[in-house]
Specification:
The structure is a single chain. This protein has 405 residues and is of the alpha/beta class. The protein folds into 2 domains: 259 residues, HUPs (Rossmann fold), CATH 3.40.50; 96 residues, Four Helix Bundle (Hemerythrin (Met), subunit A), CATH 1.20.120. 43% of the residues lie in helices and 16% in strands. It has 12 helices and 15 strands. Strands 5, 6, 7, 8, 9 and 10 form a 6-stranded mixed beta sheet that branches. A 4-stranded parallel beta sheet has the order 4-3-11-12, covered by helices on one side. The protein is elongated and about 80 Å long. 42% of the residues are buried.
């Protein structure tokens, strides 16, 4: 049985979706004020493997991924470049989709832009104001976390630290991974000269990042999500904000399982413009790495552990994948046009793959186990029918990994 580490509760749990007929998965997508780098894709690819493995395991899966295209950073970046917000974000969305396809990602069933759900955000804000959980302050609207019982439960926030004096945080995002202990903004009321705003039921303005995901989820999914995913940095503020907003207007939990991927570092340091170490798919392909090798490097680790990129590490993983694919090609040659025969090797291959993947998606362990089985099979002068059976099993497994054939 699949077991996942649920951030909500900080423990490994058997995966038992509330709706066994349809597993619903929502994953935090890119903020398209800039192009997505390989650190972003480490998270997106973990989510891709998760969805693929759920399907491999027999589940029907419906996946949504949001695109954040209306926020402070995007507006500021468009101003800095002297282009429109739409021109900036659409360009980065095209790059994102191109890179998804390049890295073999399955395009989510839903890929909504936050800018298309402004009306839905306004409707939720109106309901929150009616309930007394949100309030207007001058032109803006803020959410009062003290009005939501259990606020911070996902992160495990110590609410005894909450200040007695009211504080308001008025930006979409703040630098660093820290908590803003105070009320967070939901709506930016229009100010003269604002370049981005909409006319809505609550007035002229735009929704903050803190409510956008909640409005998208509420519009697309009408039950508790099976799984909600994102990067570990979303555990600071963002996911608890989203959870509190949505659970304040719906009488059931937002998601049963919460999964978070850890950071990708470059030679032990976080990627940043100031260090000049932001890597994109183009960067790695310019170093003669193929797309499947980039995908393999980013997925072949424990997603909850930090991953460190270096050219040496990338080279080792690329060589490991090439070695595995050569073995698979030799098995394919032995198979020829033979019909697949039931045999122990293919059964063991599937079993070792599932045992590791059921352990919180241990791709690295699954790959090592499968590599050993291929080596053993080739050393035994594998008959054609058994080779065909192994290839059949590998093709099924590659529907999850996407790097073998």
């Amino acid at each position: 049985m699949l077991r996942l580490f649920n951030t909500l509760g900080r423990r490994m749990e058997d995966f038992r979706p509330l709706n066994s007929r349809l597993v619903t998965v929502f994953t935090c997508g890119p903020s398209v004020y800039q192009r997505s780098h390989i650190g972003n894709f480490r998270t997106f690819l973990f989510e891709d493997v998760l969805v693929r493995y759920l399907r491999y395991s027999g589940y029907n899966v419906l996946r949504g991924m949001n695109i954040t295209d209306m926020e402070d950073k995007a507006i500021e970046e468009a101003r800095r470049r002297r282009i429109s917000l739409t021109e900036l974000t659409e360009r980065n969305i095209r790059e994102f989709v191109r890179d998804m396809k390049l890295l073999g990602m399955k395009i989510p069933d839903y890929l909504p832009k936050a800018s298309d759900y402004v009306g839905e955000s306004a409707a939720i804000i109106e309901e929150l104001i009616r309930k007394g959980i949100a309030y207007r302050h001058k032109r803006d609207v803020y959410f009062d976390p003290l009005k939501f019982p259990g606020f911070g439960k996902l992160f495990g926030l110590d609410m005894s630290r909450w200040p007695k004096k009211k504080r308001r945080f008025h930006k979409d995002t703040y630098p660093g991974i820290q908590w803003n202990l105070g009320d967070f903004i939901l709506w930016f009321g229009y100010r003269k000269g604002d370049p981005v705003f909409r006319e809505t039921m609550i007035g002229r303005g735009r929704p903050s990042w803190n409510i956008q995901d909640a409005s998208i989820v509420a519009s697309l999914f009408h039950e508790t999500l099976s799984i909600y995913c994102g990067g570990i940095d979303n555990l600071f503020r963002h996911h608890d904000y989203t959870l509190a907003v949505l659970e304040s207007v719906r009488p059931y939990p937002m998601a049963k399982y919460w999964l978070h991927a850890n950071h990708l570092f470059v030679e032990g340091k976080k990627m940043s413009k100031s260090r000049g170490n932001i890597y994109y798919t183009d960067t790695l392909m310019g170093k003669d790495h193929r797309a499947r090798e980039i995908r393999f490097f980013l997925i072949c680790s424990r997603y909850r552990e930090k991953l460190d990129y270096s050219e040496a590490a990338m080279g080792r993983m690329a060589e490991k994948l090439r070695g595995f694919r050569k073995k698979a090609a030799r098995v394919l040659g032995l198979a020829g046009a033979k019909a697949a025969l039931a045999d122990g090797a293919s059964d063991r291959l599937r079993r070792i793959f599932s045992e590791n993947m059921d352990n919180d998606l241990d791709v690295a362990g699954a790959f090592e186990g499968m590599d050993a089985i291929l080596s053993e099979a080739l050393a035994c002068n594998l008959p054609g029918g058994e080779a065909a059976s192994l290839i059949k099993a590998l093709r099924g497994i590659d529907e999850v990994l996407g790097v073998i054939f």
